[in-house]
């Protein structure tokens, strides 16, 4: 085949998160503005000062995996595999031998097997034992999920894991997009996963003092911090002609990607870095601000992010900001850290395909420093042709995807 | 449960077989236990008998723990239990 710029489309999606164990349930929750955040159910929760999170409920690993798989699959890998199965089933894609060599898996996660670290530190430090299970390393490593997906579907092309904190999934999907567009790959399984809701995972976040103890209220003047979530979302990104030739349903087109580094501060965001990433994604997609109808915000619900993000959007969009909708679905599913951009891409697909804009719930008081249409509390019907999905990570690493309606 | 039966139960579980199908002359490979499965079985043996098994997966034949057959594993465990629990 010849190598040259290709169009990239999404032909399958899968998820498990606090709003639901599949895409349909998750999108229904987003349409209804339902909140997946609640009291945490985990060991030693009484020793945590933050006791809420967007936890995956009603999940039985034994219903999906056998004993030997469970011995090897951390919770973040299990979530990834479940999401990947749904995405593959929806896509209906199959691979010839040559195509499987031109297809791979690029996933984002910030922490990888955090539950495995936590459980085994307990074993050696708290319980004083001197041996751990032999699979601790293959279970906790950040690339475990990507490797197991590649094995499950015999995908033998470029496969790896991206860890850029809260931007991990967007970086992963952006790279997968570029690999197909360049002609290097035919299809990619991409997205991300996180499962940090264990004692050590939450305790570490408490230390930063940026967590809310009651709710995630992005853009609201009375917001008081972020709330962690967990789960995964995985997508089939596919070269457009390949998808068309096999008559696949196209959910939307991935049109552009922008990534920048603030090179400024390890935790405080920079409006300039975010602006350059949004402009870069639009330029890459051939979009101007007037064409973008919706932004899925990074919108963490912290004082610093929401103010800085709104300032950068207002600056990039100028007069076009007046008719732009921007919402943060983290208010419903929590912040999935390295998996967050993947779950949030579902809201982007819903906007483009179904004409439904997911709301920012928990919105109580307008903040003059966040004076944009944040789609407060209730979903809205609107036809949009192009959207952006923002992710701005600790460490000042920004990754913005641009998508268009099919 | 006798030590021998306990070792066989661990090996059988790893091989996904009934204990009665595990014979003394079987090697781990005969039972379909791969290198990762072998390491997991050794971990289970250490936990069950509270012993430390000197086994290096890089050089199984040089380890002071004979894994050539089920019978050899049972004798090696018997010896380790005796050595490590006598001194305690």
UniProtKB/TrEMBL annotation, chain A:
Belongs to the thiolase-like superfamily. Beta-ketoacyl-ACP synthases family. Proposed to synthesize NOD factor fatty acyl chain. Involved in the synthesis of a highly unsaturated fatty acid moiety, which forms part of a lipo-oligosaccharide that is responsible for host specificity. GO terms for biological process: fatty acid biosynthetic process. PROSITE patterns: KS3_1, KS3_2. The keyword Cell inner membrane applies. GO terms for molecular function: 3-oxoacyl-[acyl-carrier-protein] synthase activity. One of its GO terms (cellular component) is plasma membrane. Residues 5-405 form the Ketosynthase family 3 (KS3) domain. The lineage of its organism: Bacteria, Pseudomonadati, Pseudomonadota, Alphaproteobacteria, Rhodobacterales. Signal peptide: none annotated. Keywords: Cell inner membrane, Cell membrane, Membrane, Nodulation, Transferase, Transmembrane, Transmembrane helix. It comes from Limimaricola pyoseonensis. It is found in: Cell inner membrane. SMART domains: PKS_KS (SM00825). This is Nodulation protein E.
UniProtKB/TrEMBL annotation, chain B:
This is Acyl carrier protein. Residues 1-81 form the Carrier domain. Gene3D superfamilies: ACP-like. Keywords: Phosphopantetheine, Phosphoprotein. It comes from Limimaricola pyoseonensis. It holds the Pfam family PP-binding. It comes from the Bacteria.
